[in-house]
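Bit of a strange request maybe. I'm writing a small parser for structure token strings and I need a real example to test against, not something I typed by hand. Could someone generate the tokens for this chain?
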Amino acid sequence: MIASAPADLARYDAEIGRLQGGMDRMLSERVVLQEYLDKCRGAFSPVRQLPLEILAHIFAFCSPDLIPYHDPDKTIPYDSFRRAAQLHLLRLSQVCSGWRQTVIGTPSLWATIEADLATDIDTVNKSILLLSRSFERSAHHPLAIHVAAIDGDAARGLEVLAQQSQRWRSADIFMYHMNAHSLSSIKGNLTLLERLYLNCRDHPNIAPIDIFEFAPKLTRVDLVAVGATPVLPWSQLREITVYSDFDSQDMVGAFGILPHCSSECSVRLYGLNTSDWRMPMSVRPVNSQLRSLALKLEDRHDSRHCRQVLGGILAQVTSPNLRSLCFRASSINYPLHWPRDHFVAFASRSSLRERLSMLYLHNMVMTESDLVECLSEMHALLHLFIQDVSCSGVGEADRMLITDSLLQRLTWTHDRTSLVPRLSSLHVATLFTFDNHLLLDFITSRITPGDRDDRFEMAVGWMTRKEPVIQDSVLTRICELRSQGKLHWRLQRYQTD
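Reply from user aminoacidic:
Good idea to test on real output. This should exercise your parser:
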């Protein structure tokens, strides 16, 4: 047994090895067959049945968010090559031949051009090659340009972009230590341009920028530190926003825009830090036909200084076509203070009684009598935003604006003695110091006053830490009015930023 067993074991081992080899081969063949089967099934998967137009639309959502170019020192991580090469599209094109054909053959996917020319000359040259490829693949599709440039190294890159200016539909242009006239070759070639964002921070232009004067479709313009009032197709502009931490000189330039605005234009002056403004201000009187004006500012000085600044601004402006007026504090910790006498004079000069339909008072310290006096002159007012002031540095009496007595004054009556008789929407940000039933009385009085059948809109934002308690009977009635289509109601936490 001992002598013959090793030979038998060897035969068993050989047979086991033969069978194991066959098993491995069969397992390998099974894997291949399974992969082949999966591919065959994949040919009929839903994603392969999508129309190419839908697939391309989905691919468009893969684009990364545009990076704001207000950080020339690149404290925000940024890869200029990935952006210029549109790496997200290249990755999609590597999935399969069908996706590659869709990606490469869809010009709209390549029509967003993001160029960081605020780097060294070698990097700029490499970016230019990548941008040229995007220009080719975008064919004749209108372009969205997003470019940052710094010093002379960016000149060649700007020249390449300028060669495509007849295709620009929107342009975000950030220039550091450069003059906007570096793009002078685009003048007269902006036939498709609809929106412009121009940031000339660190190099305000002394001479007026005139390269955007001829742009027949341009309607929206955002400006940051552009210096002298630019030459624009003013009559066709509908939205103008000016951003900056204005000093007195910048403010003069910003207000120099107002006289050029048409009766269909809305203007927003954002980022005004008036803390160091000296009074009186050197702003010349301005007469403007603009339709809407929004001022967003911050004043860290005392309340007297804030009133002087706001009053000084209003004292120099006359706007007889004004339909919408907005005052907004940049910081919840530094509320604005109502310039009563100057506003009354401004309202009289500008005929706000007959025309103003929207008034927005964000974080404004004013007494109830001041507000009542203001609203009593607003017979055309349709939309109103008011709020309590949550800043701890303001006296208790001045913080509470939405009170029982104010709601009673706003409640519509048949003898037409109520404030703002045509009011169709009221938005409030409140500390909830009023009676719930008075709020309901106000709402129901505005639902069908007289012969009016318009739906009333009420938005309430609470500024307390906890959601306020509204009595069940009040909520039930509000829900009934909503279900009847007579009330649009919204209750939510008020965002202070």
